[in-house]
Amino acid sequence: MKKINLKIEGMSCDGCKRTVTIAIEDLKGIESVNVDLEKKEAEVVFNDSVLSKEEIIEAVNNTGIYKASE
Q1: Confidence (pLDDT) at 65
Q2: CA torsion 45→27→29→12, rounded to 10°?
Q3: DSSP state of 10
Q4: What pLDDT, in 10s, does the model give residues 13-42?
Q5: Is the separation of the CB atoms in 57 and 28 below 8 Å?
Q6: Alpha helix segments (H runs only) across the chain
Q7: Are 20 and 63 in contact (CB under 8 A)?
Q8: What CA–CA distances, in Å, run from 55 to 24, 47, 67?
Q9: pTM to 2 decimals?
Q10: Residue 3, exposed/middle/buried by CB under 10 A (0-12, 13-18, 19+)?
């Protein structure tokens, strides 16, 4: 398992937090996701033999609303 912290741009409400959480949780290999609306960050624990950090970032960016970066 690997843990990364991502900066998430564009979040402003609980709905935003939920959308980002679902975008990440839906990926195969995710162990846990904790999105912090105030800090505009997401802590993600994932199986790095199944999923890459780039794929997680891409999933958030593919929402078309939010931008993730390490």
Answers
A1: 93
A2: 0
A3: S
A4: 999 999 999 999 999 999 999 999 999 999
A5: no
A6: 14-25, 53-61
A7: yes
A8: 9, 12, 13
A9: 0.92
A10: exposed
Cα torsion 12, 15, 17, 22 to 10°: value is -150
Tokens (6 digits) for 30: 């995710």
How many Cβ atoms from other residues are within 10 Å of residue 70's Cβ? 10
Gap between the Cα atoms of 11 and 19, Å rounded: 9
Residues forming beta bridges with residue 67, ordered by sequence position: 9
The single residue listed with the structure tokens 């904790």 is 34
Q: Which residues contact 1 (CB under 8 A, 6 or more apart)?
A: 31, 45, 46, 47, 48
